[in-house]
Each structure stands twice: as structure tokens, then as C-alpha cells.
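Quick start: what a row looks like.
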Amino acid sequence: MSFLVILLILYIIWDVNYFIRCVFTVLAGRLFQSKRKVTDTTTIYGLCTSQDVDIFIRHMNNARYLRELDFARFHFYALTGLYEQVRERKGGAVQGASSVRYRRTIPIFHPYKIQTKLIWWDEKAIYLEQSFVTLSDGFVRAVALSKQCITNCDVTEIMKTFPEAATRPEMPAELKLWLDAIELSSQKLRKDK
């Protein structure tokens, strides 16, 4: 009986399912999928369940999109070996910014995939593009840009360890505009001090 009480307390004070899913996503990727190049697109699959929906119980709520993007990023790091390179240098990765453009909802009980691709990097961060695609029709339901700040190490040095990333791609126009908007926001906040 005490085990059930401890389990109940854990579920009340922590999001246990999140941690279980993180471990499962990384382990399943490492055990059952082949290693990918850092420039490859990685894919995870999901299903919009009753735990993912909004108050009207019809489609995935906005918070769940961001949560699912976390799992897709962990999967990307695990399959490409990028995070191992960061950890070797005693660095870390934190979400610096994200932007999601919702095109069409993901209805309840519809399967989807999230495709993650590294699109650019600078000295301090990597930038990912992640797409939600429903399996029934192949429609891109949402697209996210993600800035992953890499702490305590130089990203350009890390990228040199991946032969396929010897040349940094040209910065996509939409990424440049997004980064410009982030910089304007930062300047405004600094002025408000």
C-alpha cells in the first residue's frame, strides 16, 4: 500500500509521464534506430489523445505542441550524437526561444509525426525547424523554429567534429527575420530597465 501512496504523491508533485516519455524516446531511438548525421532529418511519431486536447475535446491544445517538440529535440540529440559532443565539453543545452506557426489543428485520435532538422548554427546556438505532419493526409499542421542555446562551449567548434557539417548552410530568410525580431525585443527590454 505504501508503494501506491508514494506513486500517487510522485504523480501529484511531478509530471512523471513527462520523464518516462523522455527516457523512452531517447532509449527507443538509440536501441532501435540507426545513428543519423547531424544534418539529417529525424522523425518521431505521436497520437493526439484525450490528455492532449483543449477544453472543447476536439484537437491538440497549444501547450502540447511545445511539449511534443521537447521529445523530438531529445530524439534528435540522441540519434545524431550532438548532445554527447556538448557533454564532452562540459556544456549544456537550453531552449532560448521558440516560435510555432499553427496552420491547421491536429484532431483527437489522429496520428502524426514530428520531423526535426538542423537548419543553421552560430557560436552560441543551434537552430532547428520542426514540423508536425498528420499521417492520414501528409499535411504540415504546424511548423516551429527553435533556438537551442548551447552553454559553456563554442558551437562552431562542435560542428567541426561532424564531417557533414563542414560548411555551415546559408541562414534561411525566415530564421533571419525571426532572430531580428528577438533582438528588437531584447533591446526593448534592456531599455525598460
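That is the whole record. The first helix runs from residue 2 to 13. The mean pLDDT is 94.
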